Amino acid sequence: MFRQMEAAPGAPPLRVLGGAAAVVLGLALISGGPAASASGLTLHDDLQREVAFARYPQRIVSLLPSLTETVCALGACDRLVATDRYSNWPAQVTALPKTGGLDDAEVEAIIGLKPDLVLISHSQRITERLSELGVASFALNTESYASIGHTVTTVGEILGLSSRAAVLNRQISAAVDGLSAEALARRHGAGPKVYFEVDHAPYAAGAASFIGELLTRLGARNIVPEDLGPFPKLNPEYVVRENPDVIIVAPADAPHLADRPGWDRIRAVKEQRLCYFSPAARDTIERPGPRVAEGMRALFDCLARVAP
Amino acid sequence: MELGTGHHESDASARLGWWLISCLAITVLLTLGSLLIGTSSIETSLGWLLSPDAQSSVVLWQIRLPRSVGAWFAGALLGLAGAIAQGVFRNPLAEPYLLGTASGAALGVTISLIAADASMTGLAWASRLGVTGAAFIGACGATLLTISLSRGVLQTAGLLLAGVVVAFLLGALTQLLLLAKPEIWRSMQTFLFGSTGFISWSSASLLGAVFCLCVVPAILLSRGLDALTLGEDTAQSLGLSLPMLRLTLLGVVSLATATAVGQVGVVGFVGLVAPHLVRETLSVNHRQLLIGAPLCGGALLQAADLASRWVIRPAELPVGAVTACVGGTYLVLLLWRRSRDG
């Protein structure tokens, strides 16, 4: 049923694969259903492994919130049997068993759920462990706007929902392009200079990050250029010198910005042009997933309010 | 290094004089350098010094200078704490964090970050304390816990053991809290690697005041530390009150370390290396060591701060990683030289 041919040495022993196949075959017999039909698909995942799918997976464990959201956005939420502890959308996944995070996934709990597919991101250790145990996994790295479309298409293919995936992708890009056009149409001259603080260290979301991509699409100028990497730890002096028009910051840190040495002189602080978001809105901004347009809308609304 | 018995008294004091002068000169140079080194090029910074505008004077005098001065005092506190700890425990590997201070501070910071993030009513006090206050209280709490676990300050082995136990226990608690609240992991990492980025004049003056408060009693008690090197029995036979001596000195270590950790996070190796730097270049008694180690520690952290702002500007290296690299390399060299010289 599932064959996972690895580019790296150490392919799973056949005996284990046979066991897993028997289990899944049994499940397929119980559940029956049209979706259990043959798939015969072979795909390369983002760890450059070749993964063959004999059937469309019916018991999926997702170890990344954006992958959970993608599965559900494709209307296959009922095929999820567990998620990582951070997946919290849509509401129905909160009732599913939680199997830890990506780097501390609870292998025993995952195996116990007898999944026929585990969706993961870069994490060599859990991938190796799962393949040793004969559990199929597929790695998708979703870190940029472009990767959202790729992830939706690939998950759609794996689940046998390619046409739904195409529709979803069209919806996402229409919404994102629409927001982008609206923002640029409102803008006269250069967009506002924006500093997005991920954390008060201060770590910033630079132009190279997913968040940075959204801001750029909204016509904002990120004070952290691409060559500094996605999330650099900045010298705070840099922010003072760049003097951003808008600061996007965690609600808990917003009242204390003026206490930092020299920061009371920053335009965004002086004129209180600050954006902060609820944890739920922040999720949509920080996760490269199918709800990207929602996150972008939240950023758009705030920028329109504080930097009209 | 030679033990100084072969030197004439005047030679030794001349050498000490030169040593102090060069240490102070390095500090002055580093402080001046701190005005030039930041996110701008050195030429730009020079231009600002010559013709400042509103923004550049904020950068120079409200950001760069307090940061450098604060880093010096924090390093000096750690150097002083390290020198005292090595004397009290008669162990060259003793360092400021050996009473569990760092892990206590980390736990305090974790609780305060969780409180700030969740704005839980029961934890509002922790949020109001802020990172620096929570770190200070956590550090003091951990020290008190260590001392009470070892039933006082008299048993060296008991204290060290209790310090290790407290460090592990509080570290585990911190990890458990982090697991429940992974969002604060990045902030914690910053704290655990040390950060001089947000030192303002008020934190620099706090560090300076505590330094003065600590260095005076330490130097007054330096004869006691000299006597301790001859063994506790000898020290007692010289008429010293051991419990009072140890309690006061460990109090100074705790206050110095807790203050430094509160302001700059857990900066490693400065407290361990600074006293060795002094001993390697001077043959000293404790009075000179307690003057020299803060000077060395201060210059070391100041230099590390400059390196952390310069290497990947305008991004920043964690200052604790810089001190660990420099300090670690120095210790290896020292060990290597000692084994070579037999």
List the main descriptive attributes of the protein structure presented here:
heterodimer; A: 308 residues; alpha/beta; five-stranded mixed beta sheet; 11 helices; elongated; disordered N terminus; B: 342 residues; mainly alpha; 78% helix
Could you explain the architecture of this structure?
- The complex is a heterodimer of chains A (308) and B (342).
- Chain A has 308 residues and is of the alpha/beta class.
- Helices cover 40% and strands 15% of the residues of chain A.
- In chain A, strands 8, 9, 10, 11 and 12 form a five-stranded mixed beta sheet that branches.
- Chain A is elongated, with a radius of gyration of 22 Å.
- Chain B has helices spanning 9-36, 42-50, 54-88, 101-118, 124-149, 156-180, 185-193, 201-220, 222-229, 232-237, 242-264, 270-281, 286-310, 319-341.
- In chain B, helix 1 (9-36) runs parallel beside helix 13 and helix 3 (54-88) crosses helix 12 (270-281).
- Chain B has 342 residues and is mainly alpha-helical.
Brief write-up:
The complex is a heterodimer of chains A (308) and B (342). Chain A is α/β, with parallel strands linked by helices and 308 residues long. Helix content of chain A is 40%, strand content 15%.
Major β-sheet of chain A, in short? 5 strands, mixed
Largest interface (CB within 8 Å) is between: A-B, 30 and 35 residues
The shape of chain B is globular
Helix content, binned percent of chain A: 40-55%
Estimate the mean pLDDT confidence of chain A: 86
Average pLDDT of chain B, rounded to a whole number, is 88
* Bulk shape of chain A: elongated
- Beta strands of chain B, count: 0
Helix content of chain B: over 70%
Order of helices and strands of chain B: HHHHHHHHHHHHHH
Structural class label of chain A: alpha/beta
State the distance separating the first and last CA atoms of chain B: 11 Å
Distance between the termini of chain A: 57 Å
Strand content of chain B: under 5%
